[in-house]
Amino acid sequence: MAPGPTRAGWTDVVRLLVIGMLPTVVQGACLRRPLAVRLISALDTHAWGCRILDDLRERHGPGPVLVSVFGRKALVLLSADDVRRVLSETNVSFTTANREKAAALSHFEPGALLITPGALKAERRTFNEAAIERCVAGPWFHEACRAAVEEEIRPLLAGHTLTYDRFRAAYQRIVRRIVFGDAARDDERITELRDKLRSDGNWFMLHRKRHRLRAELFVRCRRYVDLPEPGGLARAVRATPAAAEIDPVAQMQHWFFAFDASPVADYLTLGLLACRPQQSAKARTDRAYLRACVMEAQRLWPTTLALVRDSTVETQWPGGWTLPAGTAVFSASPFFHRDARHLPYADRFEPEVWLDGRADAEWSIAPFSHGPAECLGKEIVLSTSATVLTGLLGSDWRITSPHRLGPGRPLPRTADHTSLRFAAGRGPGPG
Ligand code: HEM
């Protein structure tokens, strides 16, 4: 008999689908549903999902496991070495344009780099790199971002309490100003359109495409690029040459969408720091440390829950078996980021791992991915997050909701940012 990968038995398939996948689908893959986020956090579903993967690895060893559901095959990775291999062979043997991911994202960003298959991907990546780099290298951009953040964060400091809804509303204005320029500050319709289409994306291929809404979103977006003096990333888009098959506005949709993970990570970072006065004091004055705190929040509660690929050619695997082209390949970030068998710091808040090279050495810890499809927005995101948090840390905050984010016990695997609340001023808090 020809050698093959370990195949998950039907009980494992059911466990993976119901406990591993279902919570992600229920909370929304493209747009989080707040009630579902609360429910899955209360149940700490990621802890259950991680246990299943850990159990598979215990029983079958570190090689990947093949799962088959209604004829669709997916290879579930269980070792950091395999994650490194798949990420580094992206665009060679594996594509980021996985079928299910493309079905979800094409509701609002068809033509975006992340879901571009084949040779066109390199051209679109070059355009994305050039436009984003133009901003990162330009002092005008950093100055505009700093001004946008400071202006939008100021009203939050005036209030005595901080809720996620207030924080996110302020962040939406920041994101619009950074992506489309100051002219978009109050364009709530553009955010509404994006989020309506994202909620369609939560249904993958099961939801019909709402072409009229998407056209309206793209027209609104193009208007900012076509302004006499565009601002933010729109200014760089205007100045960056694009070949006919690259729609710059489609690329911008991804930037606009992906930026929505920042308020989640920053808000949880604030929660972690609110329970740790010494680390909070350090983060106030040491920007590199503060950025490491944001990365650490992303490690503990990754906003991208899985790195997914489709194989594009046959690949050979240890043990002598061959994976056919067209198979999905799946790396669950909550599992690898908290792999207690390999990471002594798995369930602790330890920003130092981002400063001494320990986290970067592990490719399976990948909030912004690694390799040829690594996130191009990382610098803009971290710089924005550091400015937001520096502003907020000007006040002392304590948690007033029953979240347990303090030291002294393992941090939960699933966190609910939506009901996390703060009050200004030190005090005991639940921590
Ligand atoms: C907290 C915010 C963000 C997080 C956590 C994040 C994370 C990621 C991850 C994990 C990937 C790779 C997915 C994969 O390997 O399959 C990715 C790709 C990408 N990100 Fe981000 N991202 C964020 C914000 C942004 C922003 C603001 C921009 C643009 C300004 C951006 C631009 C991109 C692009 C263009 C890609 C596609 C790369 C490719 O396929 O070659 N991201 N991001």
Automatic annotation (TrEMBL):
SUPFAM superfamilies per record: Cytochrome P450
Transmembrane segments: none
Record field: compositional bias (Low complexity): 404-413
Secretion signal, residue range per the UniProt entry: none
Source organism, top-level taxon: Bacteria
InterPro entries listed in its UniProt record: Cyt_P450, Cyt_P450_sf, Cytochrome_P450_monoxygenase
Region (Disordered): 403-431
GO function terms (MF aspect): heme binding; iron ion binding; monooxygenase activity; oxidoreductase activity, acting on paired donors, with incorporation or reduction of molecular oxygen
UniProt cross-references to PANTHER family, sorted A to Z: CYTOCHROME P450, CYTOCHROME P450 12A4, MITOCHONDRIAL-RELATED
Family per similarity comment: Belongs to the cytochrome P450 family.
Name of protein: Cytochrome P450
Species: Streptomyces klenkii
Lineage: Bacteria, Bacillati, Actinomycetota, Actinomycetes, Kitasatosporales
